[in-house]
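hi! just following up on the protien thing from before. the input was this:
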Amino acid sequence: MKKIIFFILFGFSTTIYAQLADTLFVSKLNDAEWVKSIPNSTKFKVLKFADNSVIQPGEKMTIGKPSGTNLSNQQTTGLFSSTSQVANNFSYLMLGRMGNAILSGVTYLPETFKGNEVEIEDIKFTKSGKKATSAGVMLIFNNPAMDITVLNLEFALKYGELINPKATITSDQALTELKKAKDKLDLGLITQEQFEILKSELSKYIK
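and the predicted 3d structure came back as:
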């Protein structure tokens, strides 16, 4: 966790004025020559994932649920006694922007945000210095009280803390969903017509 925060904080502090570019390709984040050619904190109009799905500012993504790796104890003090409970915070999403985090520390997004839809405000390229050979993506979401920053997009998506609604499913995922649908059909939970619709849609992804 400390390495993730250091990487993002360092990236933020090395560039004050962000440039604006067209498409940020996730597939190029480990391409050393490409990474070196992009100034740190460059803002992009479009983010393109390896599955060719794209997102851009103004569109929405869904906050998933905490990955369970950032637990903390919260103490509530009453008049005669106090209680303690475990808070399950997000590990790769934080409240606020990096400027505030540098001054006051990182406030991880609380579990109460799970399931919320959030609008993308900025897509930023981040790297730890001019000689870095790999880079990351920082997303910033509009939130009425305080903006939300994605500290590590790769891990946020991988562990379900953030959901890309445009992501295409893999062949294995489609096959698994089709098998589940068949089980529901056999149990009488869905109709044959509903199953055929699902089968038609999922078959496009099965190789």
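The mean pLDDT is 85.
The longest strand covers residues 117-126.
cheers
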